[in-house]
Amino acid sequence: MTRAEVTELVLTAKRMKGLTWKQIHEKVSVSTSPIVITAALLGQMRLEPNEAEKAAELLDLPEEAKIILTEIPYRGSLPQVPPTDPVIYRFYELIQVYGTTWKELIHEEFGDGIMSAIDFDMTMERQPDQKGDRVKIGMSGKFLSYKRY
Amino acid sequence: MTRAEVTELVLTAKRMKGLTWKQIHEKVSVSTSPIVITAALLGQMRLEPNEAEKAAELLDLPEEAKIILTEIPYRGSLPQVPPTDPVIYRFYELIQVYGTTWKELIHEEFGDGIMSAIDFDMTMERQPDQKGDRVKIGMSGKFLSYKRY
Amino acid sequence: MTRAEVTELVLTAKRMKGLTWKQIHEKVSVSTSPIVITAALLGQMRLEPNEAEKAAELLDLPEEAKIILTEIPYRGSLPQVPPTDPVIYRFYELIQVYGTTWKELIHEEFGDGIMSAIDFDMTMERQPDQKGDRVKIGMSGKFLSYKRY
Amino acid sequence: MTRAEVTELVLTAKRMKGLTWKQIHEKVSVSTSPIVITAALLGQMRLEPNEAEKAAELLDLPEEAKIILTEIPYRGSLPQVPPTDPVIYRFYELIQVYGTTWKELIHEEFGDGIMSAIDFDMTMERQPDQKGDRVKIGMSGKFLSYKRY
Amino acid sequence: MTRAEVTELVLTAKRMKGLTWKQIHEKVSVSTSPIVITAALLGQMRLEPNEAEKAAELLDLPEEAKIILTEIPYRGSLPQVPPTDPVIYRFYELIQVYGTTWKELIHEEFGDGIMSAIDFDMTMERQPDQKGDRVKIGMSGKFLSYKRY
Amino acid sequence: MTRAEVTELVLTAKRMKGLTWKQIHEKVSVSTSPIVITAALLGQMRLEPNEAEKAAELLDLPEEAKIILTEIPYRGSLPQVPPTDPVIYRFYELIQVYGTTWKELIHEEFGDGIMSAIDFDMTMERQPDQKGDRVKIGMSGKFLSYKRY
Amino acid sequence: MTRAEVTELVLTAKRMKGLTWKQIHEKVSVSTSPIVITAALLGQMRLEPNEAEKAAELLDLPEEAKIILTEIPYRGSLPQVPPTDPVIYRFYELIQVYGTTWKELIHEEFGDGIMSAIDFDMTMERQPDQKGDRVKIGMSGKFLSYKRY
Amino acid sequence: MTRAEVTELVLTAKRMKGLTWKQIHEKVSVSTSPIVITAALLGQMRLEPNEAEKAAELLDLPEEAKIILTEIPYRGSLPQVPPTDPVIYRFYELIQVYGTTWKELIHEEFGDGIMSAIDFDMTMERQPDQKGDRVKIGMSGKFLSYKRY
Amino acid sequence: MTRAEVTELVLTAKRMKGLTWKQIHEKVSVSTSPIVITAALLGQMRLEPNEAEKAAELLDLPEEAKIILTEIPYRGSLPQVPPTDPVIYRFYELIQVYGTTWKELIHEEFGDGIMSAIDFDMTMERQPDQKGDRVKIGMSGKFLSYKRY
Amino acid sequence: MTRAEVTELVLTAKRMKGLTWKQIHEKVSVSTSPIVITAALLGQMRLEPNEAEKAAELLDLPEEAKIILTEIPYRGSLPQVPPTDPVIYRFYELIQVYGTTWKELIHEEFGDGIMSAIDFDMTMERQPDQKGDRVKIGMSGKFLSYKRY
User: Fold this and answer.
1) Which of J87, J48, J93, J92 is nearest to J71 (CA)?
2) In this structure, is residue D98 part of a structural domain?
3) Which ipTM was obtained for this model?
């Protein structure tokens, strides 16, 4: 069984049981962000064993799928690059437009190094707005200095 | 004169005069974010005429460069895709890892549509942290519903 | 079951029952454009639940397929880029030839921003012409201004 | 002198003289669409000799540039594919989402063939709208039947 | 059933029955060129219903395959670009070597426009030659003028 | 001096002297096809020394350019693949649609081998037609059998 | 049955019967080179009917596989380009390093033309050497002159 | 001065002095193969200092060019991959057709490892033949065993 | 059975039996590095027959899988390039940043040649560190001089 | 002045003054590794101001070049991917062969996370060996755990 097959099993179970990601998250974990749980069930993060246990029960997953959910996946969720789906493409477009700006401003503030995408967390929420609600994203990544040696 | 030549003039002037982006921003605009000003001077956004006037004066730019800074550029700042520079690549990696998760959670919260990358604003700041300071990014884009017709 | 499998089921049913897209559209929806209905059945848009109900009945689709038709798909319909099929390539060619012109004229009329592909609708019809009938396409997308912040 | 150099001369003259495409069009031609004139000055269409004469006078172009404007260019205006600029990308996205739908509906209405991108004309205008003005595009291309032989 | 599966059924039947394309063509159509018939059976053109009837009988194809042969396919027959097969690559090489020459000479003779690949027919035959027989190809495509509007 | 620079010199001279390829061909060679002469002046074939002599005189080319015209070029005339120019793209589309058909029919008639693109000649002419004149192309390439050893 | 499936059948039979390519070659043909026989069994050349007969018997191949082995394949054996396998990559590297040199020296010796890859034969053998044995390859391809017409 | 500029200087001097690679080789080195000398002058190998001395004198190269010829270049001579030039493409095609065969036969004879492209030498010569002379190439590369550790 | 299928069998068995690579290595070989054993079981190296015997027994692999594990694989383990998985990408990034530096320093120390990736061995271990443990990698490859001939 | 121009100035000065990287390193820094210094002078790392001062003096670099050497570069040193130069390609090949193995073993030892390419240092040295000296590389990167949140 491959990771992609597990993801397909998850999506089928979610669909046929009429569950939302929010409901799945609440059943699977209290301490972990819904972003991490969703990403794990889509094959990009791993679950802790007890989370996988609950997920497997909720979604009627077979034993091997349950174990696979605790394994570290080969990451990369996009079938093509640049992504063809409009929701995901807009994030890619932000990098095209702001990439060099982010580089300049991070370096000016922190020096030579990067914002970690590993020691990283994020939030996503609805921001009410009279002219139309907004998607609000917060990201926080540890600054890592380039080591001089 | 091309937009790329203007960007090179800007970078040379900044370097030889020992200016920071922060200093340039303060001289060029009070109401606009430093992210927008920096992006414009790097060829990805446009300046208002009075901002371009101040920028040209500060950076000793010729007349044509000043006008070009007020023009809407052909956007896209990356010489290769995926970006080879580590700072910018990490953002690209976030899309690879979280792209499908963002899609699922935005749709579950808002329905069919996208987070606009046009009616969009962002902030970037230093987040002090005992284990090492963090880069904190806030993004906010209007949710646009797919029109049904 | 994947979205691609649903599309294949739809095409087989349409073929074996001898239906046209026009007939399917008439049976599935009165208020929605045939373009949207066809795009949904080809895996690029979603149907409203009652539309999916009617489509599933008309095309003998299984329960899971019916639900999938109401889900928001991962968009992107082209197996290669540039598209190899001549009908679709001609649209791509129009972008190659007119892309920068559209950009200039939209900016001159509206300022900095884009024509939305989300708050967007279109029509397609036959335009009788003595020298040979023509395909007439009308597009209308909301202009979105680049936010300055 | 290459076509790209002519385009750059045109853009510099337009910028330094403070002209709009609308003004240039009015001076260069009465019978031809502003879309064609703009596309020609951007290196994607050709001008008639008398149009080139007027364009060269208005924009102070040298003799060789004037002749080049009457030559048929090597068409293709995009520096990268998919296009990175958001305005142009949205058109590309429409092909990604609607490409197969257009193919199905054109074939159902007209049979096997294509909408010509050569025997083709188009319009672009502002469509006033209370919720925000819209970009309205009309396209009309002759249907060409695949010849059976 | 997909178009690719129909093509594989055709090839298997042709092989196991020991048929040539020439024999298939003679059985399937009298008025249509063997090039069109072969291309249709390889998934790039469509057959008329009576031709599909005869092809299905000759090759023992199931009902759905017979209908698919009358449908307009998503065209594009090459698994990679540039094509790796030497026979097909040589045609690609001719475009690499002569592409700009063809463009210049067509424009000089006909003005701005293209040779249609839709209103197009061709022949292919053996040309006896003492130094070794030659493949002789005749192509004829309607010239389409770029519309000025 | 590079081959590309020679081609640009040729195009400038042709343009400023108001010459056609037909006129150039008549002055440069009597025995060689206009296709070969044009291709050579566009950097894809070589001229014989006496032809280069005449071409250099007619087009006021410097000594080095004259020698370069007799050298065998690094062939390949397309700035992008697939070609963006509509005239050239149509030939590419023919390979996409007919590539596998040509392969099948050549093999059925000749056995295993290819149509040479080296021992190859071609013609291009106007074919008058009431419904619109046609571009008529004749190609003839020696069949080369795959050697068994 | 596809050509790739035949190749997999061949490899499984070879493996389970413990055969070498040398043994297979000896059983299948006396007059043909082991390179050609191996290439055919890997899907890149065709076998003569009597060779296919013997191969099918030796490897227990089904009837359709036997016929497919006599058919001319769609050539191209590399799953990616450049090839990732080190043995095959080294040949690719030789073209990267020596490609332009080969072109210059072939042209200087033979004039304008190519070394045929069709009227071509080769040998591969072990060359004993005290410092470590060497792979010795001999290639011989007919020189084909570019036809002038 | 870059390596590419040195190559262009070499080609211009060779052309204007009417030299052949054979003549250059004879003047530059007695012990080294003409293939190595030509490759070095085309920017893919290095010359020994005394060879560079003679080459610089023969071709009137400036001091820096002379030194650059003794430096180890960044190898890779092809402007595109796959190569568009027919002479070089044929070698690429041989890898496409025979790549997996070479892999199988080398492994069967030598075990796991590769033919070195570094401890490698080659010859190229004219092979007279009544049916048309042939290009004969001999390659010899040391077999390197994959180290087990 | 393909190599990829063997790898999937290995991973399933490892997972369901709760084995680590370390445990597998200890059972399969004493003299060979765990890196080589793991790479072989992932389809990139081969096992010795006795190692394959033990691996097959430990992992309940069928006979054909056991033989395949002793065969030399078609190497190349990455589904996309550049690799999307963060762990593997970081190595790729090191080449992007240090590639030309390694080239310069190896040449300065050793002359013209390469570090072999075939006569090569490596180690990977945990390096305890107060600020956080480190991954320590040691590589050693034979220097191969470019042969002059 | 661009970073690439600075690198070219550095290489020209190094060449004309007959300096080695080792000599440059000794003059420019005592505490920093020669790998970092070389990488900085090749445009991939930055120098400290006092190092840049010494480098500029040693290599006669202009003022702007000196400042640029202290700036953080846009990293990425390879003109093509995969790299065509054999020295650099061998590192790329190691990733192709060992990439998934490194991933498995790092995860088994450390859990979910990566080896940092930022908090990273390395050494490169000659390892004497009777069968031929070896290139010995030592790498050490901090293990970064994927943050769970």
Assistant:
1) J48
2) yes
3) 0.96
